[in-house]
Structures are given as C-alpha cells and as structure tokens.
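dude i think i finally got it to work??
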Amino acid sequence: MTRPATTHPLTAIARWVRKMKAIIMREVGSRYTGDALGYLWAYIVPLTWIGVIYILFIVLGRRIPIDTDIGSFICSGVVPYLCARYAVNAILRARTAYRHILSFPSVSPNLVGGSVFLLELGNSVLVFLILLLLNFVIFGFFEMHDPVLAMWGFFLAVSSGGAFGYMMASLSTIVPALTRATPIFLRPFFYISGVFYTANELPPAVRDWLSWNPLFHGIEVLRNGLFEGYTSLLGTSSVPVAFIIVCVAIGFLVQRRRLASEPAEGDTSWAI
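look at this
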C-alpha cells in the first residue's frame, strides 16, 4: 500500500505566508475603495482622534498625572485603546467580508483572521510611532525609557483586543447577535482602562477592582516602558497574556465544536 505524500513543514509554512500576504494585500486594496485618500484613512482617523483629544486637554486644562508632556501621555493611553478597539472591529468585520473565500478548502478562517490582525497590528505600530515622531518634531518631546518594554505593553494591549475579537467572532457563529452586541461590551473600557488616568492615582480599592482588566495592564506596562520616572502599581504582563490565551482557546474550541457538529457547513463557519 502506497503511503500518502507528506508536505514538508517549511513548504507548508511558505504556503501560509503566501496566503496571508494575498489576504493582507486584498484587505489593503479593498478597504476604503473608491475614496480619493484610500487606505490613508486607516491612519487619518486615529490621528484625527488624537488631535481632537490633545486640543481638549489644552482647552480644559487637564492635569497630567505623570511628569511628562500632554502628547506623550495621550500616546500612552488613548492610542493603545483605539488600536485594541480597531483590532476587535477588523476581525469581526472579516468574518463577513471574507465569507465567500472561506468556501475554498485551502483558506481557513484562522488564516483570514490572523492576516487581518497582523495588518491591524502593523497599522497600530505605525500610528503609534508616527505620533511619537510628530510629538518630537512639533513640540520637542520624546519619551522612550525602555523601547522593548514599551512595545511589549503596546503589543499586549492590541493583542488583547485581537483575541477578544477572535473569541466574539467564533461565538457569534452560535449566537449571531454577539457581533452587534460587541460594541456594548467595549464601550465601558474607554473609562476603566486608564486612558485618561494612571493606576497609581487611583484609590487602592478601585485599583484592585480594575486589576482584572487586561487592557489596563497593557497600557500600564507601556507606560513603564515610556516614562523613566513611572513605575505602575498595577501593570503586569501575566493578566493580558492569560486573557489572550483564554480568549484564543475559547474561540478555537468553539470552532472545533461547530465543525464537528456541522461538517456539511464547515466551509462557511469560523472553524478550522
């Protein structure tokens, strides 16, 4: 009996890379199609958000709780929150936008979701670095005490959003209403994630109550890396890492369960 041919691991990885590249290029080409500015809107919208918030800080005379400038403080809180939210929305949108190509056996939902997340992560890092550069060029301020720790915290914040989006996209195959309900879950995080304040200025009881929030931890880890004189009383990597693992595990198990129970419809579900 002839043994079936096996694919070399490196060959399989190369195929995944090519497929991911194709999906990313399709996403870049199709998003904001027909607009004169095209994909630049992916950067204009968050930059405008930051500009408006910066003006509000000036007009309202908002006190900065860290010994730094307004621009650097906004970059440490508002930017990771926005990018985490964009990651959630992008993955949820991909479930519908790419439904037609998921009928091909060679294209898995995880491949699509992973590709879209990588694109959002790249956009997020670019927006973050552009804002830091603009803050330095225009105002002469640049905060980057520990680049590795700062980027790690930023990655944790954005990845927490991506993992949550993945879980909700998977669960929405069982309860479709979850896709529309996701913004309801996300809205409170604007107020409880340290976007406009730090963990150190909160009363201990409030800080302990918010210690479950992975996005808050990611933002505080980012601040530990940005600001030389700041050491967060809350920020730890273990909470967002655990959150990411749990969300991905739940999403994966939901996909596998759906595929096992509905094999005939597996080509259009978010299952492997």
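Residues 109-139 form the longest helix (31 residues).
im so relieved honestly
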